[in-house]
Specification:
The protein is an alpha+beta fold and 502 residues long. It has 17 helices and 19 strands. Strands 5, 6, 7, 8, 9, 14 and 15 form a seven-stranded antiparallel beta sheet that branches. Strands 3-4-19-16-10-11 form a six-stranded antiparallel beta sheet. A hairpin with a 5-residue loop joins strand 5 and strand 6. Helix 4 crosses helix 8, helix 7 packs across helix 8 and helix 12 crosses helix 14. The termini are far apart.
């Protein structure tokens, strides 16, 4: 689709009512995950947050639209990219990037190394109803998981230490919480640690620890609002904004050959595997919790009376409003009607209580837990928000990263394979490199490579006009065509996995 076609669709569809607009746009249309948006902005966020349309197209007096140049497009795409290399373990490196559609972006991500246990943690969080919940989860969840993974003896010693070191070493940490929220969250985390220290079992199951941490943090998001309110009538609008917004979550724990994934909502983790005949195979590890998942629909129907069969899922959404059928936060779908009346309605009005709200809770934060033992054939893992998966398939993403792996070696200078190499061999090596340079990718970062192709890709390659136009749309229009995108690509060390004991 070329630039003029996109312009025509945008200009025409903006004049239509939302329902008709969505039918016409089809796959291009990206509705909000939550139709009811109650944004409070009480989080102090690092100013590195951006909007993808920071370099916008300019219209001259004669009506000619000038799109961003290829260099400007690349600047937009690379603004949030990050990569990290490792010298030991099964993970060689990871690339990450984010591209906003909302202002501010509602996606977040976090990565960290456990310091008192082994294992690398990585999470992608796709917020809705505002960025607050996703931002808070990105700052807190990995600590909750690291604590849940501690052996009992280590945990008890840690709890009693007067000045405790951080349980994780974070990378590329961009979000900073305001001070009064930090105090609230530290108190909740202390309670979490003390509760964990009372457990008698010393053997830690990674999957159970992931589930326990997610559910405990989700419960704390509620307690931080309700306990002060029930105790002395105080209502903290900052903690309320977090509890009333929501986020879907996909978190991985990688320790040697052991890969665990915890998923709540509609983010996805996809494994890139090389087959015996050197073909790429995409193993989709997660299943989305949405209306396309029949098991998830059956679960919700079974949890509520038959009389609510027609109302609990309407328009493929929970209560006709929320697209993901599991999420963290979103206490608008979890608290009782009485609590919502007392806590939320005074600030948000009667719409704080969804229509047909009879038998809450309607929403769960319980994750599905997946385990995969990595082999030398497993080359990388892609974890991304649905902004990416709405645009490309798992197999397309794996092939793109596979091609990127092959081509990115040419970012490095040529190294001769041995000393005293003959001139004829050098010439052959250079000719091969010259031919292979045709596959050299534009971006060194694989997450950026995926985002570029997801937005601008065609069967013939990346269309610059399409890419430039979609990146230069204003926020209110951009959201109709694409969602926020957050992508993390984790590369595995095949030699380490080959030598790891069975």
């Amino acid at each position: 689709m070329n630039c003029s076609n996109i312009s025509f669709i945008v200009n025409t569809c903006l004049k239509l009512d939302p329902g008709l607009r969505q039918k016409i746009l089809g796959n291009w249309f990206r509705d909000h995950k939550s139709e009811n948006r109650c944004q409070f902005r009480y989080l102090a966020v690092n100013p590195r947050y951006f909007h993808s349309a920071s370099i916008v197209s300019q219209t001259h007096k004669d009506g000619i639209t000038v799109l961003p140049s290829p260099q400007e497009v690349t600047h937009i795409l690379r603004k949030n990219e990050f990569n990290k290399d490792f010298t030991t373990g099964s993970v060689k490196a990871y690339d990450s990037n984010q591209l906003a559609s909302n202002t501010p972006i509602e996606d977040t991500r976090s990565e960290a190394q456990c310091k008192l246990t082994s294992g690398l943690l990585m999470g992608v969080y796709d917020g809705h109803g505002g960025p607050a919940c996703a931002q808070v989860i990105s700052k807190r969840l990995l600590n909750y998981i690291a604590a849940a993974l501690l052996p009992n003896d280590v945990l008890k010693k840690y709890v009693n230490e007067p000045s405790r070191e951080c349980l994780i070493e974070t990378y590329n940490d961009r979000v900073e919480l305001i001070e009064d929220l930090k105090v609230v969250y530290e108190k909740s985390f202390d309670k979490h640690l003390k509760q964990l220290s009372l457990e008698t079992s010393d053997k830690k199951d990674v999957g159970a620890s992931l589930e326990q941490a997610i559910l405990q943090l989700d419960e704390d998001l509620s307690k931080e609002v309700l306990e002060p309110f029930l105790r002395d009538g105080q209502l903290n609008q900052k903690t309320l904004s977090v509890a009333m917004s929501g986020a879907v979550t996909c978190v991985t724990h990688i320790d040697g050959p052991h890969l665990h994934v915890a998923n709540v909502g509609d983010c996805n983790a996809v494994l890139g595997t090389m087959t015996e005949d050197n073909q790429w195979f995409a193993k989709k590890i997660t299943k989305e919790h949405n209306s396309e998942n029949l098991d998830e629909l059956k679960r919700i129907w079974n949890e509520h009376p038959e009389s609510e069969r027609q109302t609990v899922i309407r328009r493929d959404r929970l209560l006709g409003e929320l697209a993901p059928l599991r999420s963290m936060g979103d206490y608008r779908y979890k608290w009782s009607k009485q609590i919502l009346s007392d806590v939320a309605v005074p600030l948000l009005g009667k719409k704080a209580i969804p229509a047909n709200y009879h038998t809450p809770p309607y929403l769960s934060a319980k994750p599905d837990i997946y385990y995969h033992r990595l082999t030398p054939k497993d080359k990388f893992l892609i974890v991304a928000s649905d902004g990416l998966w709405d645009m490309i398939t798992p197999l397309q993403s794996v092939k793109l990263v596979g091609e990127h792996m092959k081509g990115k070696v040419f970012f490095n200078p040529l190294k001769l394979p041995r000393k005293n190499i003959q001139l004829g061999d050098i010439n052959e090596l250079l000719l091969h490199r010259k031919e292979s340079l045709k596959s050299k990718p534009k971006d060194r970062n694989a997450a950026t490579h995926l985002i570029r192709h997801a937005i601008g890709g065609t069967e013939y390659g990346v269309d610059h006009a399409r890419l430039a136009h979609l990146l230069s749309l204003s926020p209110d229009v951009s959201r109709m065509f694409r969602d926020d995108m957050t992508v993390t690509v984790v590369y595995f060390d095949s030699e380490f996995l080959r030598q790891y004991p069975a």
